[in-house]
Design brief:
globular, mainly beta, binds flavin mononucleotide, 47% strand, 12 strands
């Protein structure tokens, strides 16, 4: 599966007043009508149950410059938000400043899938960051990658 390149996102929500989030590569587009996306979440995640309880979340599509953000949100425990600038989205989720684009989603369905759960989100807001000029952050064969330009 490491031969399949994918972008990196941070999935985040407010649990009470507290922002929570985790790095997620398994984000995918699912449906146009209604507009649905999916993510696969490890059952050992301590953050996802908090997102599920809230029932809504943001997806921040990271830029190549945000590798450190990806690393920070991939570790369990405190400190994920240290040094990370964030804003409250239209859908009342915390999103990561400087990302290429953001989604707000309502949790639409969840399916059991082995040691993961497949969470399906219905998009309630789509926002492009016109100020972001950077490339997307890609993950391939266990390492971060940049786009190599146009072909
Ligand atoms: C590049 C990268 C991609 C990841 N993608 C996923 C993913 O798609 N699903 C997932 O459950 N965890 C993924 N993780 C791991 C989670 O980010 C990590 O297990 C989680 O943040 C643990 O913290 P938590 O206990 O707060 O949930 C990924 C980690 C990295 C570094």
């Amino acid at each position: 599966m490491g031969h399949y390149a994918a972008g990196i996102t941070v999935v985040s929500a407010f649990d009470g007043g507290e922002p929570v989030g985790f790095t997620c590569q398994s984000f995918s587009s699912v449906s146009m009508e209604p507009q649905l996306v999916s993510l696969c979440v490890m059952k050992t995640s301590t953050t996802y149950p908090r997102v599920r309880q809230v029932g809504r979340f943001a997806v921040s599509m990271l830029s190549y410059d945000q590798r450190w953000v990806s690393d920070q949100f991939a570790k369990s425990g405190a400190g994920k938000w240290a040094g990370v600038a964030w804003s409250t989205s239209p859908g009342r989720n915390p999103w990561i400043d400087g990302a290429l684009a953001w989604l707000d989603c309502e949790l639409w369905a969840e399916y059991d899938a082995g040691d993961h759960a497949i969470a399906v989100g219905a998009i309630t807001a789509l926002t492009r960051n016109d100020a972001a000029q950077g490339d997307p952050l890609l993950y391939f064969q266990g390492a971060y990658r940049a786009l190599r330009g146009e072909v």
